[in-house]
Amino acid sequence: MAKSNKSTETLLVQLESLCTTDVQRNRYNDIESEHRVYKNMDRRIKTDDQRLYRVLHITRMLDTSLQLFLDIHGCRHGHSIGEYLDDLSRGSTPFLRLNVCLKQRFKEQIANVRNKYMHSSNQFPRENEVNALTSTIHECLQAVLNLKTS
After folding, report:
1. DSSP readout, 46-62?
2. What's the sign of the alpha-carbon dihedral 82, 85, 86, 87?
């Protein structure tokens, strides 16, 4: 997990560099807080619960990151990860649009996976599912941060 934490920290520094107001910096601090919780999960918690909490916190970090990115660019209309991905692929954005195929894959591999575990009792992700989710979140955040403003 050390490599993924470093990768996340690098992406977060890129996101932080886009923040120009105190409100944006405060929201960025919330994102960092989610990442700290994710990487410092209490090892005394039952393993199934640890993995569930990791899904919760890494997806909350992404959710707030996408929201912040869209707000910085003044083009947020949605209220969820899936809707933020829709916003990123619309033609009315001040940056290059997110590829529709990527958008769909991110919805399936992030939003749907998150929802599967957040909305179902007694369902717990396996370690490989958490790792795959984390990897896809890194890919998503990197793709979003690579969208160049026009």
Report:
1. -HHHHHHHHHHHHHHHH
2. positive
Q: Which residues of 74-110 are buried (b: 16+ CB within 10 A; e: fewer)?
A: eebebeebbbbbbbbbeeebebeebeeebbeebbebb
Phi-psi category of residue 56: left, alpha or beta, with phi > 0 → left and psi -120 to 50 → alpha: alpha
Per-domain residue ranges of the chain? 2-145
Block mean pLDDT (10 aa), the chain, length 150:
68 92 93 86 81 94 96 91 94 83 97 94 94 96 83
Sign of CA dihedral 44, 48, 50, 56: negative
Q: Which pTM was predicted?
A: 0.86
Q: φ, ψ for residue 148 (rounded to 5)?
A: -85, 140
